[in-house]
Backbone:
């Protein structure tokens, strides 16, 4: 199952890259700026996708914390599974 998910992930990443390349290639150049406008459009699209990804991740953390009823004090405490200062003498 894990191998299937990895294969599908890279297939989708490749498909998105190919489609983005086709869109940039087929897009007409702007009259005054020329071909540079394509890079500006790509930058805007990637910036927006990144912002949407960060917002989605934050909302997902809030949702999971609420659904699992995890108190906020648990999220603020350091993990007790690892030593907070590994160089400290025992």
Residues:
């Amino acid at each position: 199952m894990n191998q299937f998910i990895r294969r599908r992930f890279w297939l989708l990443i490749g498909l998105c890259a190919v489609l983005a390349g086709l869109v940039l290639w087929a897009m007409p150049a702007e009259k005054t700026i020329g071909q540079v406008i394509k890079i500006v459009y790509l930058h805007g699209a990637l910036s927006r996708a990144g912002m949407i990804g960060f917002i989605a991740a934050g909302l997902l953390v809030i949702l999971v914390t609420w659904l699992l009823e995890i108190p906020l004090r648990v999220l603020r405490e350091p993990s007790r599974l690892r030593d907070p200062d590994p160089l400290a003498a025992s």
